[in-house]
Amino acid sequence: MSGVFRRRKRASAEDDELAEGSDELADDAEDDADGAPEPAVKERPQGPWDVEDVPEDGVQRLDLGGLLVPVPPDTEVRVDVNAEGEVVAATLVQGPSTMQVNAFAAPRTTGIWDEVRAEIAESLTGGGGQAQDVEGPYGPELFAAVPVQGGGAAPARFIGVDGPRWFLRALLTGPAAQDRSVSAPLEQALRSVVVVRGSEAMAVRDALPLRLPREVSEQAAAAAQAAQEASEADEPDAPDLTLPERGPEITELR
């Protein structure tokens, strides 16, 4: 699904120059000056939270760096990695339903979900799918039919949340994409997600840096060390520690 999150084409060199300046200075420097405008993004009184305004709710969250992700009961959390082994998203799995969560840098004073939503819809319809704006618990969202390999289409819901200098996108698939009663637990989990934007300058739409949880990193390091020792000892049954493309899975069952 990452292919539908892209920059839109611009019509003129002037637009390109403006976009370049916006992308490179998408955060603090000028906005922190005296008289800077207040953020124009909508308030999120029930989450998802910025790290600066998260309440003391007692929710235990998985620390992925740029995202703190809750692990609800009977939920499996997959840490998704790309071909280079970089963590790019977290996916919450509840039975046959999934919710993938990504976070990106955004301007301080404007949201980008309206623009991104239009781009996703254009990409899907151009590829033979369907997309329709609907009203959801977080405001406008996109209900889509995504073409699948071998023919046919799969239902999907794209939810976007504009925060202070960040944008959060959630993609729901499976029964949760069509049935609000099924998606309710995942939507509630999304409300408990915390975004850690950081103070560094980032281009608009750059993905916030994510990492494996410390416990998983330690386990992976220990396993790698064991594999190296086994290899040096010429043990024939050394385990295959190739990291699966979707990344480690963290399951919590209560």
Care to describe what's here?
The protein has 254 residues and is of the alpha+beta class. It has one domain: Protein Transport Mog1p, Chain A (3-Layer(aba) Sandwich), CATH 3.40.1000. Helix content is 22%, strand content 29%. The chain has helices spanning 13-24, 113-126, 180-191, 214-232, and strands spanning 49-50, 61-63, 67-70, 75-81, 87-94, 97-105, 130-136, 139-147, 153-163, 166-173, 194-195, 249-252. The strands form two sheets. It has an eight-stranded antiparallel sheet, with helices on both faces. It is globular, with a radius of gyration of 20 Å. The model is unreliable at 1-34 and 238-244 (pLDDT under 50).
